[in-house]
Amino acid sequence: MNLHEYQGKEILNSFGVRIQRGIVAQNKNEAVAAAKQLTAETGTGWHVIKAQVHAGGRGKGGGVKLAKNLEQVEEIAGQIIGMNLITPQTSAEGKKVHQVLVAEDVYYPTEGGETKEFYMSVLLNRSSGRNMIMYSTEGGMDIETVAEETPHLIFTEEIDPSVGLMPFQARRVAFNLGLSGAAFKDMTKFVSALYKAYVSSDASLFEINPVLKTTDDKIMAVDAKVTIDDNALYRHRDYVDMRDLREENPIEVEAKEVGLNYVDLDGNVGCMVNGAGLAMATMDLIKQAGGEPANFLDVGGTADAKRVEEAFRIILKDPNVKAILINIFGGIVRCDRVAQGVVDAYKNMGDAIKVPIIVRLQGTNADIAKELIDNSGLDVQSAVQFQEAADKVQAVIG
Known about the structure:
Blueprint: H1 5-14, E1 22-25, H2 28-42, E2 47-51, E3 64-67, H3 70-80, E4 84-85, E5 95-96, E6 100-104, E7 116-125, E8 130-136, H4 143-149, E9 154-158, H5 167-176, H6 181-200, E10 203-213, E11 219-221, E12 225-228, H7 237-240, H8 250-257, E13 261-264, E14 269-273, H9 276-288, E15 295-298, H10 305-315, E16 323-330, H11 335-349, E17 357-363, H12 366-374, E18 380-383, H13 386-397
Parallel strand pairs: 14-16, 16-17, 17-18
Antiparallel strand pairs: 1-6, 2-3, 2-6, 4-5, 7-8, 7-10, 8-9, 10-11, 10-12, 13-15
Catalytic activity: succinate + ATP + CoA = succinyl-CoA + ADP + phosphate; GTP + succinate + CoA = succinyl-CoA + GDP + phosphate
Binding site for Mg(2+): 209, 223
InterPro entries: ATP-grasp, ATP-grasp_succ-CoA_synth-type, ATP_grasp_subdomain_1, Succ-CoA_synthase_bsu_CS, SUCC_ACL_C, Succ_CoA_ligase-like_bsu, Succinyl-CoA_synth-like
């Protein structure tokens, strides 16, 4: 589950991570009120107005702007709220902005001091199976660009799960970032608190870009990209309310509501499969046949008529789908039951199904299932072997 910046900062702050303070606003009037409140609490006269969408590169699309007075706060907030923000991480249509974060200006001058920006993230290193802290002196930039052009400026610190983050590792992070004195001490505290927030919240990603050293040597998170593991939400009921369905793919949201595991993709062949492993193999099969999978869809072990019909309706919401491949292994569920579900769902939907359907059923009562499909009189093709299904997919998509 992805979070907005302001939500990620709330979690960070709850674990003692210093953050750039801000107040979320739904309209320009709320933005002005938020700016006044921040001025009263922090003394800041300038404010940063940030679009709250689930996408990086907001500044490049005009979604992050500095306001030097209340009139500019009102004007900028009015411009950003309601706009379709296009960034390198959105589609060509962009994402509609429903709210902004009015944040304090933390780039204040101090005699003899200077600001520095760093990059820092905490995530799982899948190669080693350990959590790691990735960080760089090149904050405020796309980390992909840094990795490509100056890979020597990216550091990593892997965490032994048996002991957790050790103090010497937090100090090494601060040292590699070139810090000393008060900033060095504050960075070690920041790193420790950040890692605690990551582990305790069951996150799969905490990305702070930039981590700022202020002119008076304070370390704080100016941004926050946070992803929480969906499978751990039962342990964080308070986080569930943070989900913003407006930011998610509406088809995926609908599929989740009816209990289907669905991920939208960019291809032309819809997939309906039971089991994640078989689903991955089916997508490979489609690519070998010259097509592209339009989705990942796992119907689970109860592929009855109602569930199959729901899956059909979800898949057919994608206008790019030119064919549907149903690939079911009848282990827990009998193949003949699935086949009857396909036939009943097809009849219930009537003319709504306008694309060819290939059904491959293997396992318990697979022979009976094939007879049901072949004798149904519907425009449904049955297959027994993987290659046979691939050939039929290739034939219908051209």
